[in-house]
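Sample pair:
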Amino acid sequence: MKALFIGGTGTISTDVVALAQQRGWEITLLNRGSKKVPERARSVVADIHDELAVAKAIEDENYDVVAQFIGYTAEDVERDIRLFQNKTKQYIFISSASAYQKPLADYHITESTPLMNPYWQYSRDKIAAEEVLLSAYRKNGFPITIVRPSHTYNGEKPLVCMHGNKGNWQIVKRILEGKSVIIPGDGTSLWTLTHSKDFAKGYVGLMGNPHAIGNAFHITSDESMTWNQIYETIAEALGKPLNALHVASDFLARHGEMYDFTGELLGDKVNTVKFDNSKIKRFVPDFICTISMAEGLRQSVEYMLAHPETQIPDPDFDFWCDRIIDAQRAADDAFEASAK
């Protein structure tokens, strides 16, 4: 069985490639060649956005699966349909669970939950891409499978609700230094983190699965934790107390300045979500997540502390956090002063 991975070296796809190879798949990676290709994988060096170059590179090839990990827009999948219409038995598109209805009418999410997100352009682009693919499937039989990951990680950084443009280290650093750490809302909304090794089990189980054609799936852990619990787990792994400061999510979104917290918070992370994974388990009976959220968070903290190259300072985000915290405390002081 042959699969072409567009991308294939990212947070999610690396473990998918590894597991697919373990199960006997012949893997080819199509990317710009800027990252090391896994052992035993073939490589096609081309920019997927250069349609003519890609068409030439694969003109003599056919695949059982084309796995698209770096498609984001309707235009991206329209190009892929032209490239792969007669070259694959299955085209798997990575969408996003953030595409599900916001605000949610029901926190219990199935694959039939409506797709609508007025807060985040990223999610709307994914929805538009899904609509193009569904139309191609219905009209021309293009063999699509849609996969919607939620917050998936690979154990190399502890996941937080919000961070700056340079990654998560600055939050870890604030905890280590005893500084206040902002948690949106009251921190009690439920969230799900899924380790990429667990995600890979569901994804690879869909590869070459004829029952998956024309279907959409989210692939997540069944476990949920509150954001308070997530941050407490990170702090405990660091051996430090957590100095949490809860700030209204819409306040953070209004004053995000260089950060898109309207999309990332209101359009995603501050909504309580509970994913129903019955569908993926029916189609892939051996899908089960074995890495708990707490275990994965501790593993991520240990990895980051042991790898200084991941510890990228973000003074701009640190300064922004201090400004938000000062504004919150000034409001508290002003309210108390008004009562005297």
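The chain has a mean pLDDT of 95.
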